[in-house]
Structure formats: structure tokens, C-alpha cells
């Protein structure tokens, strides 16, 4: 309470009562994460309609010393977007009402959007102008641009287009003191000092609230060729990747690998999904080529590379999609892994990246490492192989998980064992999901004291009261 008025009352007066949710029923969808693993109390959810209102919320929270938790689509896979069970309940600032596409500038290959725009809506608005916004991931129907920026999201297009950081030209941010920074430049060259937008990309809401962004667009591909392959092994998959890179250059737009355990989970738990190939195989790759022009030339190129791979003994089987519907069906299998895993049991998802050339060794050594801890434990592999990002998932059925003695400690040990293997190969424990709450211990363990000190100094300069997303990102 400040000057006799509660923060809730002040927020309701400023934003209007309909923009403040605080009943238990209204809060339910905002205070628990997608997988039901993290949950904590919030003072309320504020739903601002514009940047000025975001700034007012932040100023009021600051006056009352109340933490601020920025939230987008709440699809975080590391517990980053919901309150902690302990500590002072925050005000959740959910950006879903700020979903205006402000402008598409086709000639400049850019678009300006509000942070609450759902990623799929941004892709569609770009496509309507013959342009591509290339960040693409399984949660694109619900995650927001602001959330993808705050987590520097990756996904399936990184191989060709880079991650979110590579596709942001400018930002508008409300800082922890309530000031609004208008950095909405649409320039591709601007060497005028520190490039401040990068401080907010991947900051997971610890440095301010992203309210709008200028995004980089690309020509919309009109030709596609997609195939589902069964390589002999992860090393064979890498060799096939090399064949594609040599022959296709930047036309190679995705190269995704899953193992048979992961495919089995998808087929068993997601209705309508089946093995695209006639027989069972240990490894599966989805490859996509895209370009301007028409499909025929790309399909020919794809077929030629598959023949080469087959002649070299790298490939057990392959099927090429012959229509848009078949392409979509192959992608649906790939995009169903999170849904399947959620229904099938408890997956201890890791988010490692290693140099692409080290992926086969990583998979081998990480499998041995987890099986030393839990003999025979099934592992699921989902890899954005083209950029070395492997979701290596030690997996328990619900029954096995419930029967596991000391399971939290065991989960931590299994993750650490996998991350140690990645670290020894020059890798990281978080390639694209971020740190959130689930990887705080890994931050403390793997980041050097010098790097942590620099991060803390930056945080201190922007948020000296530590009100923004406390308990996330920085241990
Ligand atoms: P939230 O989950 O709401 O928030 C994530 C973090 O960003 C939190 O720390 C939050 O405080 C902060 N934040 C949110 N909005 C703002 C804002 N406007 N300003 C400042 N901070 C903000 N991720 C990948 O990288 N690649 C994938 O392939 C991928 N696949 C996924 C598939 C599924 C099925 C699911 C459920 C998730 C997947 N994710 C993936 C994770 C997730 O979708 C991404 O991290 C996404 O970028 C989060 O966006 P969001 O809007 O849901 O953010």
C-alpha cells in the first residue's frame, strides 16, 4: 500500500478493471506452465493495451516494490514465464492485448509488430506481402513475438536463417524504471555505439518488457521439396547433411533428426501420426529445400542427392513428399514430439548444443552417461541436426517416474551427466529454450565467474531493485 491505495486498486484505476485479473479462476491459465511443472502465486495479471500502459504498470509496481513478470504465450519450456512458489507474488504483465501488426515494409524487407502478436500471425502477415518471417517452432500458434525475442528462440529455420537474434532489426522496450526506449529502427547498418537491442534479446524479461519490434523479412519461398529419410546412423545423417550443403547451399532450409524411440512415442500418443516409411528404422531425418521458382527443379535436386546418399551406403530408406499436403503431413510428425512426450510420461528434456561435427559422439557418450545412472533407461532424441542442437531426453513412463526413489535428485544428476558430456565437447546446456528456472543450477555450474559478474553488472545497471523476473536467468 502506498498513500493508502493498494497496487491492485491503482492498476485497476489506471488500466480499467477489465484489464486486471485477480480471481483464482482468472489467474489459473497464467500461473502454471504448459507442462504443469511450475506454478506459483501472482498478485494479479495486468493486460495492457499499449506501450504507455505498460510503462504505467511498471512505474506503479516500482512504487510498491512489487516484482514484475513479463509474459507472452506462456509456452516456456524452462519455467521462465510463471511465478515462483516462493518470494513476493509478482504482477504478471501479459502482452496478449498488444497484437497489432503496425506496418509491413516489403521494399525494406521488414515489419513492425507489437510484442503480443502470435508468431503464426506474424508469419501470415509477412506471407501476405510475399515475404517470410523465418522463425518457426512447434509453439508458433500460441507463443508471442515478445516471448520469442526474450528467449532468443531457435526452432527449425536456424540452419538457414539464424535464430531470433538474427532476425530482429529494432526494439521498443519499457525499462525497469518505466522509461520507454524507442529503438524501432528498420536499418540494416547503424554503427552508432552499443547495439542495445541485443541486451534485451535472450534476457528472458530480466531487463525490461519488449513492447514492439522491427523484424527482418526474407523472400517467401515458392518452391519446396521435403523428404523423410532413414539414415544408417547419426554419423550417416551428418554425411548426408554434408551432401545437401555442398549441392544446395542456402536452399537447404531444415535438417531435423529424431530417433525411433521418439517416433514411437509420437505414433502411440498423437492421433493420426504414423511412420512415413514402410518399415521401422533406428534414425529418422526430415529434410527441406526451399527456393523461389517452382518445385520441379528442387525435387530433381533432392532426388539426385538421395541417390548419392544411397550409393554411398548412408541411407536405409527415404520417401519424398509429392504435394503440399504430404509435406505438411511430414512436418506434422516432427512438430508432434512435444505433445507426444507430454502425454507419454516424464521427459527430462535437455537443450544441448555441440559443434555439428560432434553430434554423433555426443549422442553416444550421453547415452552411456545416463545409463550408468539408470541402467536401460530409454532416451528420446530430437535434434535440429543442422545447427548442432540436440534435445537429449532421458524418458520415464509415469509409473517408472512415480516409483523412482529420490527422483528430483536423480533428475538433476541425469541432466548434469548429459550437460557434462556437452560441456566436454565445447557445447552448452541451453541452445534455444533459455535458462528460466530449470537451468539456474547449470548457469552457476558452467558459466565462468567472470561471465556471471559481467551479466550481474549489466542487470544491476538496468534493474537495481531486482524487480524484473527475480529468480530467473541469474543464479
Ligand atoms: P513465454 O513463455 O510467455 O515467456 C518466456 C520468457 O520470456 C519468460 O522469461 C518471460 O518473462 C519472457 N517474456 C515473454 N514476453 C516478454 C516480453 N514481451 N518482454 C520481455 N520478456 C518477455 N523454443 C525454441 O527456441 N525452439 C523450439 O523449437 C521450440 N519448440 C517448442 C515447442 C512447443 C510445443 C512448446 C510448448 C515450446 C517450444 N519452445 C521452443 C519454447 C517456447 O515456445 C519459446 O521459448 C518461445 O519463444 C516462448 O514464447 P512465449 O511468448 O510463449 O513466451
Automatic annotation (TrEMBL):
It comes from the Bacteria. Transmembrane segments: none annotated. The keyword Electron transport does not apply. The keyword Flavoprotein applies. InterPro entries: FAD-bd_oxidored_4_C, FAD-bd_PCMH, FAD-bd_PCMH-like_sf, FAD-bd_PCMH_sub1, FAD-bd_PCMH_sub2, FAD-linked_Oxase-like_C, FAD-oxidored/transferase_4, Oxid_FAD_bind_N. Keywords: FAD, Flavoprotein. It holds the Pfam family FAD-oxidase_C. Residues 38-220 form the FAD-binding PCMH-type domain. Belongs to the FAD-binding oxidoreductase/transferase type 4 family. PANTHER family: BLL6224 PROTEIN, D-2-HYDROXYGLUTARATE DEHYDROGENASE, MITOCHONDRIAL. This is FAD-binding oxidoreductase. The lineage of its organism: Bacteria, Pseudomonadati, Pseudomonadota, Betaproteobacteria, Burkholderiales.
Amino acid at each position: 500500500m502506498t498513500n493508502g491505495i493498494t497496487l491492485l486498486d491503482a492498476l485497476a484505476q489506471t488500466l480499467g478493471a477489465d484489464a486486471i485479473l485477480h480471481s483464482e479462476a482468472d489467474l489459473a491459465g497464467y500461473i502454471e506452465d504448459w507442462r504443469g511443472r511450475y506454478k506459483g502465486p501472482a498478485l494479479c495479471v495486468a493486460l495492457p493495451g499499449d506501450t504507455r500502459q505498460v510503462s504505467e504498470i511498471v512505474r506503479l509496481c516500482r512504487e510498491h516494490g512489487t516484482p514484475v513478470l513479463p509474459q507472452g504465450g506462456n509456452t516456456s519450456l524452462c519455467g521462465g514465464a510463471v511465478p515462483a512458489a516462493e518470494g513476493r507474488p509478482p504482477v504478471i504483465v501479459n502482452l496478449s492485448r498488444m497484437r497489432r501488426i503496425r506496418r509491413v515494409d516489403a521494399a525494406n524487407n521488414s515489419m513492425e509488430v507489437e510484442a503480443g502478436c502470435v508468431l503464426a500471425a506474424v508469419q501470415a502477415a509477412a506471407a501476405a506481402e510475399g515475404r517470410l518471417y523465418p522463425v518457426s517452432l512447434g509453439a508458433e500458434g500460441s507463443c508471442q513475438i515478445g516471448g520469442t525475442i526474450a528467449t532468443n528462440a531457435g526452432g527449425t529455420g536456424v540452419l538457414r536463417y539464424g535464430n531470433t537474434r538474427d532476425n530482429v532489426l529494432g526494439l521498443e522496450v519499457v525499462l525497469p524504471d518505466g522509461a520507454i526506449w524507442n529503438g524501432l529502427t528498420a536499418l540494416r547498418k547503424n554503427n552508432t555505439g552499443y547495439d542495445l537491442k541485443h541486451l534485451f534479446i535472450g534476457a528472458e524479461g530480466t531487463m525490461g518488457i519488449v513492447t514492439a519490434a522491427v523484424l527482418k523479412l526474407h523472400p517467401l519461398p515458392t518452391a519446396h521439396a521435403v523428404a523423410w529419410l532413414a539414415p544408417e546412423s547419426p554419423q550417416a545423417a551428418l554425411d548426408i547433411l554434408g551432401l545437401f550443403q555442398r549441392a544446395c547451399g542456402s536452399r537447404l532450409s531444415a535438417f531435423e533428426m529424431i530417433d525411433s524411440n521418439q517416433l514411437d512415442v509420437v505414433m502411440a500418443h498423437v492421433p493420426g501420426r504414423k511412420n512415413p516409411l514402410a518399415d521401422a528404422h533406428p534414425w529418422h531425418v526430415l529434410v527441406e529445400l526451399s527456393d523461389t521458382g517452382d518445385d520441379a527443379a528442387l525435387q530433381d535436386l533432392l532426388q539426385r542427392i538421395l541417390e548419392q546418399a544411397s550409393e554411398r551406403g548412408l541411407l536405409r530408406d527415404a520417401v519424398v513428399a509429392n504435394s503440399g499436403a504430404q509435406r505438411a503431413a511430414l512436418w506434422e510428425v516432427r512438430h508432434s514430439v512435444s505433445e507426444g512426450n507430454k502425454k507419454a510420461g516424464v521427459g527430462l528434456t535437455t537443450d544441448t548444443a555441440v559443434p555439428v561435427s560432434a553430434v554423433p559422439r555426443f549422442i553416444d557418450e550421453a547415452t552411456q552417461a545416463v545409463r550408468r545412472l539408470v541402467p536401460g533407461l530409454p532416451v528420446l532424441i530430437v535434434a535440429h541436426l543442422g545447427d548442432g542442437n540436440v534435445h537429449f531426453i532421458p524418458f520415464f513412463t509415469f509409473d517408472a517416474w512415480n516409483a523412482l526413489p529420490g527422483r528430483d535428485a536423480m533428475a538433476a544428476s541425469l541432466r548434469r551427466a548429459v550437460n557434462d558430456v556437452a560441456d566436454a565437447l565445447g557445447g552448452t546446456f541451453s541452445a534455444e529454450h533459455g535458462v528460466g528456472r530449470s537451468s539456474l543450477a547449470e548457469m552457476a555450474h558452467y558459466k565462468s565467474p567472470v561471465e556471471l559478474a559481467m551479466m550481474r553488472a549489466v542487470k544491476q545497471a538496468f534493474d537495481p531493485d531486482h524487480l524484473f523476473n527475480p529468480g530467473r536467468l541469474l543464479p
